[in-house]
């Protein structure tokens, strides 16, 4: 293990050095932009998985680090806030802190420089978390995070595709992952439909969710069957992630849109037929799986209840039978028992529910399990540590995918 | 025009409002993260194309804005720096400045908060400029930037594909754009190979270069023929953009790698055969085009000289016959006249050279044109304003693509 960390740290150093060398040809232009200042190495991962974070801020009075490995603590104002770590300043105005050792994981973090949220200027690994924020990324290698990064070996392709959704009256974008070997073979493949959460869009699972890489690694190690993975945009008002174009149509709609079943209708009427007409797909219940997180979990519940014979594998992540009335979302509970019985009758191979102990929707999962139990509905339950986080959703995907199509 | 700007501003407002509503379901989690602070709107584009930039920084003593629409000025230390705009603070600790009116364009910018480079926390549109930086993006709509954003209408697909490069002994990633209609039709298509610059990677043209959107818009308006566009990684030592995996192999290599012709060899021996075997392609000289910027311009020159009968359309952006000896890159000049004559004999349909008046490589283009003129070599020259910038490269692509395959 230590050796592989050494290799990793060395590789990062080589990468940074080589990147600098390859940049030489635009050095003139560059020098104008960044001045003559030496580039810091941040974050710097040490052999023991401690990490040194650094930022140059000579005039700042207070610099802290906020990373999603840190716990939430009371903010003194009836809310919660993420715990932070204080950095200390050296004689050159560089602030730094050593953190950890950290568990293997893909982390997001940012600095607070005199309370201004600042991405790490030395770190080019940045991801957007839906409409919430952008954050700097840190990968700590190890067994628990081994699925999250590309390695040598065969790889799937990711296709950004626009399709017509007559249901939503939009031309919409989705990402379709085809597994290693898809383009060389003549085989048909099973399909997993993978839904993001509220505030997210079709870029969520391919980026922070690292779904394509997780699938490559699971498939290459024989843990999951080769499958197609379809990552849609679950916001029924949105043609695509709006960062790619404010010019695309966007229907004004309230939060109620999340429960108006329009996305679910478009998934069944528009997305699945498109996939089954345009990819080499085993187009039957036995070879269709559906899972989603949070809002996508709600859409998974809704879709499986409305279409009990469509999917043989159903996964609900970080969502249950939630009371959404405070958001103006009213759910018709009277149909529930009937829907559960219809799905029980359809007898899917797997109904899987996963939630973290600290998830703010945990109680909704308890409610859901109680209602399923009342009807003797057969499901598997996976309770993890942690809350409503990408860390958990990557783990859930890593566990759900291997159970499919077997 | 004014009306369309109103619409645009309104759309952005609607987008932000709807995004906030769609996020409600994770509001509990969110509130913990961002505290109770109201989200600023920044940048705020006004009807007259002035733009208000804002950032909350109550403790800061000095906040400036650095945007790539601003000119370079002497830094007082024999170098150049980007001119900045000072922001002023209101009673709530929010700093802001009104800039412009700005010309229609896709801009990158950042704040300097007490000299710390800070992306705009209110703006989720962020792009990575190779190994140089990440920056916040601002789109100012208008005729000159109309090609750069997705609109309604048919759209091409973008495929992230891994291919074997025996030449470089790497499994490598590239982006392949297939035009609107490709998947429905049975036709074969011409191919444009589109190369990025030093410090960049295969993500450069699809993101900052917005090549897929430019092509969609050119093709849908009938200005360019439908074509496939191949966006490779031009760093011969790199499997892919290293932000996606430090675990992938990366060969340690000096800047000399840029001139060792290995990428050019892999383009001809690995990339082109892969494309011609895996896509519906018109596999002949008349239907192959090659262009690249800066380092990719050098690779374009090299490839066209070494393979005079491969491409009928060749475009060199922001590069000429540069003296790269200060970077340890020695070019064998003795073959040049002979190479020019061989290419003249092959008689390509178009040899196009584009450069900005302020480009730091401008003199290399003068040298190149002189040497081509000496051999009576037929080329077209496009001189633009500005320098070594994505603004120019997007314009060049917008002008080059319509001249192809006609």
TrEMBL record, chains A, B:
Keyword Acetylation part of the UniProt annotation: no
PANTHER family to which the protein is assigned, alphabetical: DIACYLGLYCEROL ACYLTRANSFERASE_MYCOLYLTRANSFERASE AG85A, ENTEROCHELIN ESTERASE-RELATED
CDD domains (UniProt xref): E_set_Esterase_like_N
Protein's UniProt name: Glycosyl hydrolase
Species name: Maribacter cobaltidurans
Leader sequence segment: 1-31
UniProt keyword Signal, yes or no: yes
Keyword terms of this UniProt record: Hydrolase, Signal
UniProt cross-references to Gene3D superfamilies, sorted A to Z: alpha/beta hydrolase, Immunoglobulins
Domain of life (superkingdom): Bacteria
InterPro entries per UniProt: AB_hydrolase_fold, Esterase-like, Ig-like_fold, Ig_E-set, Mycobacterial_A85_antigen
A single GO molecular function term of this UniProt record: hydrolase activity
Upper taxonomic lineage: Bacteria, Pseudomonadati, Bacteroidota, Flavobacteriia, Flavobacteriales
């Amino acid at each position: 293990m230590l050796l592989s960390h050494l290799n990793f740290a060395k590789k990062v150093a080589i990468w940074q050095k080589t990147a600098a060398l390859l940049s030489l040809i635009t050095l003139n232009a560059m020098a104008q932009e960044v001045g003559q200042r030496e580039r810091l190495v941040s974050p710097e991962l040490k052999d023991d998985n401690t990490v040194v974070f650094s930022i140059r801020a000579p005039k700042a009075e207070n610099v802290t680090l906020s990373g999603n490995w840190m716990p939430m603590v009371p903010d003194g104002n009836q809310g919660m806030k993420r715990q932070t770590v204080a950095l200390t300043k050296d004689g050159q105005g560089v602030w730094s802190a050593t953190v950890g050792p950290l568990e293997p994981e893909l982390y997001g973090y940012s600095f607070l420089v005199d309370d201004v949220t600042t991405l790490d200027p030395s770190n080019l690994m940045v991801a957007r978390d839906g409409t919430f924020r952008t954050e700097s990324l840190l990968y700590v290698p190890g067994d628990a995070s081994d699925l999250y990064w590309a390695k040598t070996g065969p790889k799937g392709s990711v296709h950004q595709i626009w399709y017509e959704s007559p249901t939503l009256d939009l031309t919409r974008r989705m990402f379709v992952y085809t597994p290693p070997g898809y383009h060389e073979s003549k085989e048909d493949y099973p399909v997993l439909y993978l839904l993001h959460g509220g505030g997210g869009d079709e870029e969520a699972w391919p980026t922070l969710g690292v779904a394509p890489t997780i699938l490559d690694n699971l498939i290459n190690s024989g843990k999951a069957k080769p499958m197609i993975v379809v990552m849609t945009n679950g916001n029924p008002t949105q043609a695509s992630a709006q960062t790619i174009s404010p010019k695309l149509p966007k229907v004004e709609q309230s939060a109620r849109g999340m429960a108006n079943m329009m996305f679910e209708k478009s998934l069944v009427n528009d997305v699945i037929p498109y996939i089954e007409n345009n990819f080499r797909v085993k187009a039957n219940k036995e070879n269709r799986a559906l899972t989603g997180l949070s809002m996508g979990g709600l859409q998974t519940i809704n879709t499986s209840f409305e279409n009990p014979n469509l999917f043989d594998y159903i996964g609900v992540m970080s969502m249950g039978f939630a009371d959404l009335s405070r958001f103006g979302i009213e759910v018709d509970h009277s149909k529930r028992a009937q829907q559960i019985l219809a799905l029980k009758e359809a007898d899917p191979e797997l109904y899987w529910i996963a939630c973290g102990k600290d998830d703010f929707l945990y109680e909704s999962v308890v409610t859901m399990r109680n209602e399923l139990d009342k009807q003797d509905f057969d499901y598997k339950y996976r309770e993890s540590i942690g809350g409503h986080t990408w860390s958990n959703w990557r783990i859930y995907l890593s566990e759900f995918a291997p159970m499919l199509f077997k």
